[in-house]
Prior knowledge:
Layout: H1 20-26, E1 34-39, E2 44-49, E3 64-67, E4 70-73, H2 74-81, H3 107-120, H4 126-133, H5 137-146
Antiparallel strand pairs: 1-2, 3-4
Amino acid sequence: MKNTGMTRPLDTLGRIVIPIEIRNTTGIEIGDPLEFYMDDEKGILGIGKYNGVSCKLCNSAQDLSYFKSSLLCRECILDMKGNIGVTLIPITTVKKKPKESRVHRPTLQLLKNLRQLMLEHPEAKQSEYAKLLGVSQGRISQLKKLL
């Protein structure tokens, strides 16, 4: 269970408003029945859309069994065991680009180069100095303070 960061007050009649973001995400519409879950050990109250007593996959109400806290009918269980209606999803791996390593240059060298650039291009902007030296604008600001 994740923390949404949203808080709502309980009114004098014990009602609470479920934020629209959560209703949209979970598919809860106005008038839908809700089911409450409680974890005494953690002190957590959960709310979910009530699906009734039916198979989670086909909504059948006959020959139901619990499987990992979900109701499934016998037909769906047999279909899963026999891989009937199962589509294999190819797993592709995405190769990450190797991270470019930064070249560390001593501050004194950068100061010397910045001073040279400032003499050659006195009207240049800080962003232009940053591009020419290959550093960030923040680093140029730090170097200017040291000058």
